[in-house]
């Protein structure tokens, strides 16, 4: 893949979407087989699909934007993450929601996010089993495409008067912390979803708030954060301070909240 003028946001977004789709196609090939999972040093699972998707994404991004380092989950787990200080770099989770992949519920994604000086400025989230691709970039807005259709704009919705729709992880959560954080806000319903799809539901105006009280890594959040930000939302820490990237050498996140049009 030829490199692209990094100021050409539309072309870059299209190219990254194509990379995500190619990785997703490889993931679906493996999804159709009797694949097995292994356990990494941090006790999280990894499959051939994680590794195969990363092997597609990393060199493609390196060819697309040679000056931008790529921080990808499986390389980082093997101790091969580049050292990041400032400037622009990619954060890649080649298969976010490996447990969803193992359970074959379709709620897993390919995440590719571009960070500039600590801020997410572009993101692509592709759910290959669902056919849904979410993308967004600073200054361009956010979009959703289903099964290759023409992308349509998405945006967060205003806070509904009848109460909030909370989106939560299928496998992580702390009801007591959530209740304390909500501090009496009315909750209409809670939706469970896997992977970075939670960010995308808020970005598309299907939910209002995604609080996460548990361990995540920067490659888990960068792409979804960028899509949400482009759709008019925001992500903060639980004490409402800025949520930034390249925070530490291991790329670990604090607890956070993804906000739609909630004030």
- Indicate the low-confidence ranges by residue numbers: none
Distance between the termini: 43 Å
Q: Number of DSSP strands? A: 14
Q: How many domains, as an integer? A: 2
Q: Indicate the overall shape.
A: globular
The description of the largest β-sheet is: 7 strands, mixed
Q: What Rg, in angstroms, do the CA atoms define? A: 17 Å
Question: Count of DSSP helices?
Answer: 7
Structural class: alpha+beta
Query: Considering DSSP H and I runs of 4 or more, what fraction of the residues is helical?
Result: 25-40%
What does the average pLDDT come to? 93
How is the secondary structure organized here?
Elements: H1 9-31, E1 37-39, E2 45-47, H2 48-64, E3 70-72, H3 73-77, E4 88-96, H4 98-103, E5 109-116, E6 119-127, E7 132-137, E8 141-146, E9 152-154, E10 164-169, H5 175-182, E11 187-193, H6 197-203, E12 209-212, H7 218-230, E13 234-237, E14 256-259
Parallel strand pairs: 3-4, 10-11
Antiparallel strand pairs: 1-2, 4-5, 5-6, 6-7, 7-8, 8-9, 12-14, 13-14
Helix pairs in contact: 1-2, 6-7
């Amino acid at each position: 893949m030829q490199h692209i003028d990094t100021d050409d946001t539309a072309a870059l977004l299209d190219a990254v979407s194509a990379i995500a789709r190619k990785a997703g196609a490889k993931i679906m090939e493996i999804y159709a087989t009797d694949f097995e999972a292994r356990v990494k040093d941090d006790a999280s699972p990894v499959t051939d699909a994680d590794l195969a998707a990363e092997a597609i994404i990393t060199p493609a991004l390196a060819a697309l934007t040679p000056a931008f380092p790529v921080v990808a989950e499986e390389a980082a787990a093997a101790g091969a993450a580049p050292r990041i200080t400032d400037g622009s770099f990619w954060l890649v989770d080649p298969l976010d929601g490996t447990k969803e992949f193992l359970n074959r519920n379709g709620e897993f994604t390919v995440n590719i996010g571009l960070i500039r000086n600590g801020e997410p400025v572009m993101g692509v989230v592709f759910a290959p089993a669902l056919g849904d691709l979410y993308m967004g970039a600073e200054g361009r807005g956010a979009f959703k495409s289903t099964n290759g259709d023409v992308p349509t704009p998405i945006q967060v919705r205003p806070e509904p008067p009848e109460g909030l729709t909370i989106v939560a992880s299928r496998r992580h959560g702390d009801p007591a912390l959530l209740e304390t954080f909500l501090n009496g806000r009315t909750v209409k319903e809670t939706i469970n979803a896997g992977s970075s799809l939670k960010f995308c539901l808020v970005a598309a105006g299907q939910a209002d708030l995604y609080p996460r009280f548990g361990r995540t890594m920067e490659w888990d959040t960068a792409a979804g954060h960028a899509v949400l930000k482009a759709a008019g939302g925001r992500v903060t820490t639980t004490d409402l301070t800025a949520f930034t990237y390249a925070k530490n050498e291991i790329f670990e996140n604090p607890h956070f909240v993804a906000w739609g049009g909630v004030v």
